[in-house]
Design a protein that fits this description.
Blueprint: E1 9-10, E2 17-25, E3 28-37, E4 42-45, E5 53-60, E6 66-73, E7 84-89, E8 96-97, E9 104-106, E10 110-111, E11 117-124, E12 133-138, E13 144-148
Antiparallel strand pairs: 1-2, 2-3, 3-4, 5-6, 6-7, 7-8, 9-11, 10-11, 11-12, 12-13
Length: about 160
């Protein structure tokens, strides 16, 4: 496991893995994702050198081209208490949010075997009936459907 307790995740058919690491800058703590290739002896910060983020729960798309992950922006105008789902290319480019609801914490994503969907859980941060539920998202369109409630940490069966 990494400093945060999360396991590194190997890229299928490659010598690379993605992991997160805690970074401290004065009183600011960030958690960044790194792409590591132990054979080539390279290590690339996918989160951006100065990003005030907490990135975690990375998972590779089946084709190895994308990484889905959870992100909390912990400083500045976009700061939230909740974690949102994001994706980026394997080299860190094209990073973009898939969810944007500060009242909901989004659980670890799981890619469908064909790479079209993400399965994850949603956790409302406030309200009278806080129930964790499982949701499905079409990555291309952003359309989301509730699968079951209550439920959490969903996985695809092979």
């Amino acid at each position: 496991p990494t400093q945060t307790g999360e396991a590194a995740v190997w890229r299928l058919g490659a010598t690379q893995f993605v992991m997160n690491e805690q970074r401290v800058d004065g009183d600011r703590v960030s958690i960044h994702l790194f792409l590591v290739d132990p054979i080539a002896d390279t290590r690339v910060n996918l989160s951006g050198e100065t990003s005030p983020v907490e990135d975690g729960a990375p998972v590779w798309s089946p084709d190895g081209e994308w990484i889905a992950f959870r992100r909390n922006i912990n400083d500045g105008p976009g700061a939230t208490l909740s974690k949102q789902l994001w994706i980026m290319r394997a080299d860190g480019s094209d990073a973009r949010p898939l969810t944007d609801d500060g009242a909901i914490d989004h659980g670890p994503p799981a890619w469908s075997p064909d790479g079209r969907y993400l399965l994850y859980h949603r956790f409302p941060l406030k309200g009278p009936d806080i129930v964790i539920s499982v949701w499905l998202m079409d990555v291309a369109t952003g359309e989301q459907w509730q699968v079951i409630s209550p439920g959490q940490r969903p996985q695809w069966l092979p």
